[in-house]
Design brief:
Helices cover about 5% and strands about 45% of the residues. The chain is mostly beta strands and about 400 residues long. It has one domain: Methylamine Dehydrogenase, Chain H (7 Propeller). The strands form seven sheets. Strands 3-2-1-28 form a four-stranded antiparallel β-sheet, with no helix packed on it. A four-stranded antiparallel β-sheet has the order 4-5-6-7, with no helix packed on it. A four-stranded antiparallel β-sheet has the order 8-9-10-11, with no helix packed on it.
C-alpha cells in the first residue's frame, strides 16, 4: 500500500495527530540470551506526523521511554525523524538500533542503544523519494536496503533508478552499488521491493509489484539473491495473491509464511468491490530450492477482511497476524491466530476501530511471548504461548507523555 496515503488515513483516525514528540530519556542495556533470541525490542510510537522511539526488554519492561524522537536533536542527527519510521525485519547483527525513515525522508539512522547517541545517517534517496522498506546486515561493512519506489527520471546521479536492493557500507555510511529487481516481463508493474531476509547462504526479497498508481498489482514475487555476486539467482511468482507485505519464518527454518493484503481496487465477477479477492496466507516449504508453495489458506475470506502486513510464528505451526478494518465498511481491525495444520483462523482481539493494529512480534523458544501493537488502545497486547494456547497477559502501556500510539516493533 502507498505509505503516504496510509499515513494520512491513519492520521485522521488518531486524536494525537500533530503531537510533538518528547525529549530523550537516554540509552539502555541489551539483555543477552540464547543466540536466536531478541536481546530487547524497540518500539516506534507515531501519529504519522512525529515519531518517538522507545525500548523494551524481551519481556516488555520499559527500558527507555524515549531513546530518540522527532523532537530531539542529538549530535549526528542532521535529518529529523519523520512520522513514517520502521525497523529492519531482522535484528541487525551489529546490535545497533537502525531506523528506516521511509517517506519522504528516505534516510537510515544508526543509534547506539547503550547511550542513545546517533552514530551516523545515510540518505538512500539518491535524488528521489525512494521509500526504503527494509534493511539487512550481511557483515560489518555490507548491508542491503530495499527501495520500494522506482524513479521515472533516473540517470541524473548514481544509483538513482530505485526498485532495487541498494548495497551500502554501513560503517562508512556510503552507497557502493545496487541490484536491479525489475524484470523484462514486468509491464506496468514496478518491483516494489519490500521485506528482505537471509535464508542459508542466500538473501530473499519480497516484491509487491504494484503499478505506479497503486490501482492494480501483479502476482507477488520472491527473488533469491546471491550476496557473493550481488546478483539474482532465481525468481518465484506466487499466483493469485498480491500486496504480500508480511513474512514469517518458522522457528525451525523449514517453512515460510506470507500475509498478502490484496488490492483494494479489485472487483469480483459481479463488478463489486472484493477487498479479499487476492488476500490470503500462503505457506512455502523451504526444503525445496527455490521454495515450493505447499498451501494457500482462505484466511481473508474466512475473516471477511484483507490481511495486514505483519505476521509471526508463535510456534512451529501457529501463526499470529492481523486483518484490516475499514471505516466506510464499519469493520474493525482484528488480531487472529491460525494453526497451519488445521487452517481455520481464531480471533484473538477486536481492536474496536480501523487503522489500529500494527506490528506483530513473537519469540518462540525464547520468552514465548507475542506482542501486537494497538494504536487505538495505546498499548502493546501480550500473549503467553504454551502449546496451542495463547493466554492474554497484562498489556504494556504505550507512550503516556503525549499519547503517541505504538505502530511498529523491532528486535535487537
Amino acid at each position: 500500500m502507498n505509505t503516504k496515503w496510509l499515513g494520512l488515513l491513519t492520521c485522521f483516525a488518531v486524536a494525537a495527530c500533530g503531537a510533538k514528540a518528547p525529549s530523550t530519556t537516554g540509552g539502555f542495556q541489551l539483555q543477552p540470551g540464547a543466540a536466536a533470541c531478541a536481546q530487547g525490542y524497540v518500539l516506534a510510537d507515531s501519529d504519522f506526523t512525529s515519531t518517538n522511539i522507545s525500548a523494551l526488554s524481551p519481556t516488555g519492561a520499559v527500558l527507555s521511554a524515549s531513546l530518540i524522537s522527532s523532537g530531539s536533536a542529538p549530535p549526528g542527527l542532521t535529518t529529523a525523524l519523520s512520522g513514517d519510521v520502521v525497523f529492519p525485519s531482522n535484528a541487525p547483527s551489529s546490535h545497533q538500533v537502525v531506523l528506516i525513515d521511509r517517506y519522504p525522508n528516505s534516510v537510515l539512522t544508526w543509534v547506539e542503544p547503550s547511550t542513545g547517541n546517533v552514530l551516523r545517517q545515510l540518505s538512500v534517496g539518491t535524488g528521489f523519494a525512494a521509500n526504503p522498506h527494509d534493511y539487512l546486515e550481511l557483515s560489518s561493512s555490507k548491508a542491503y536496503v530495499s527501495r520500494f519506489e522506482s524513479n521515472a527520471q533516473a540517470g541524473a546521479q548514481d544509483f538513482d533508478a530505485g526498485g532495487d536492493l541498494l548495497i551500502i557500507d554501513q560503517d562508512a555510511g556510503t552507497i557502493t552499488g545496487r541490484i536491479d529487481l525489475a524484470q523484462p516481463d514486468d509491464g506496468e508493474f514496478l518491483p516494489r521491493a519490500d521485506r528482505v531476509w537471509r535464508v542459508g547462504t542466500e538473501v530473499w526479497v519480497l516484491l509487491q509489484r504494484f503499478d505506479a498508481d497503486f490501482k492494480t498489482a501483479g502476482d507477488a514475487r520472491l527473488v533469491g539473491i546471491d550476496p557473493e555476486t550481488d546478483s539474482v539467482s532465481w525468481t518465484l511468482d506466487v499466483p493469485g495473491v498480491a500486496g504480500c507485505g508480511g513474512v514469517a519464518l518458522s522457528p525451525s527454518g523449514k517453512a515460510l509464511a506470507l500475509a498478502c493484503s490484496g488490492v483494494t481496487s479489485d472487483v469480483d465477477a459481479a463488478n463489486d468491490s472484493a477487498p479479499t479477492l487476492r488476500s490470503d496466507l500462503v505457506l512455502l516449504d523451504l526444503a525445496a530450492h527455490p521454495p515450493a508453495i505447499t498451501r494457500r489458506f482462505q484466511t481473508a475470506a474466512q475473516l471477511g477482511a484483507p490481511l495486514g502486513s505483519s505476521l509471526s510464528f508463535a510456534t512451529e505451526t501457529r501463526l499470529v497476524g492481523v486483518a484490516l478494518g475499514d471505516v466506510t465498511a464499519k469493520r474493525n481491525d482484528v488480531a487472529f491466530t491460525l494453526d497451519t495444520s488445521v487452517g481455520t483462523p481464531e480471533l484473538l482481539l477486536d481492536a474496536g476501530a480501523a487503522f489500529a493494529l500494527g506490528d506483530v512480534r513473537c519469540a518462540p523458544g525464547c520468552t514465548d511471548l507475542c506482542f501486537v501493537a494497538d494504536a487505538q488502545a495505546n498499548e502493546l497486547h501480550v500473549w503467553q504461548v504454551s502449546g496451542a494456547t495463547l493466554s492474554e497477559q497484562p498489556a504494556v502501556p504505550g507512550d503516556t507523555t503525549i499519547g503517541l500510539p505504538p505502530r511498529t516493533i523491532g528486535a535487537l
